[in-house]
């Protein structure tokens, strides 16, 4: 898929989301849960993630969704991980080996209750590119990261590195909700 088409499609998805102003991932999750009429929980991973392991994970059961994230990384990175997983959720992405057991609630002690698991490890497939684009565009719109500037390529990178384009600081840190 071409980047321009992907960006356009993701902007439409973001336009349909109940994005809070000021931005907060916790408020966004609460609004999504209310809109979807199903719980959406944020849960910090118990240990820091290491290279090659997921820094985030979306788990879905019949009646609730859980986003696990690395809470031992920076607040901005935590937001990005969570919003990336929200991207999977709002786009209806499915795991390759989705299991459709009819459990009602997610019981993390019982792996059989998980219907969908989408770990955030690599960005090679279309679902990962789409979720990553949604996270990037949403955080740009929220002022958390600088959007594309008028200068392309290396000049744009220098502009950002020199602090000529600034992002608004994150409000509250992303802690378990």
Short structural summary:
The chain has 5 helices and 4 strands, in the order ααβββαβαα. The protein has 177 residues and is an alpha+beta fold. The chain has one domain (3-161).
What this model shows, in words?
- With 177 residues, the chain is an alpha+beta fold.
- It has one domain.
- Helices cover 38% and strands 11% of the residues.
- A 4-stranded mixed β-sheet has the order 1-3-2-4, with helices on one face.
- Helix 1 crosses helix 4 and helix 3 crosses helix 4.
- The chain is globular and about 45 Å long.
- The C terminus is likely disordered.
Tell me how many strands there are.
4
Helix content: 25-40%
The whole-angstrom Rg is: 17 Å
Oligomer, anyone? single chain
Instruction: Assign the structural class, choosing from mainly alpha, mainly beta, alpha/beta, alpha+beta, or little secondary structure.
Output: alpha+beta
Straight-line distance between termini: 35 Å
- Characterize the biggest β-sheet: 4 strands, mixed
Q: What is the domain tally? A: 1
Shape: globular
**Order of adjacent strands in the largest pleated sheet:** 1-3-2-4
Beta-strand share of residues: 5-15%
List its salient traits.
177 residues, alpha+beta, 38% helix, 4-stranded mixed sheet, 11% strand, disordered C terminus, 5 helices
Topology, please?
Elements: H1 3-15, H2 25-36, E1 40-44, E2 56-60, E3 65-69, H3 75-91, E4 116-119, H4 126-141, H5 153-161
Parallel strand pairs: 1-3
Antiparallel strand pairs: 2-3, 2-4
Helix pairs in contact: 1-4, 3-4
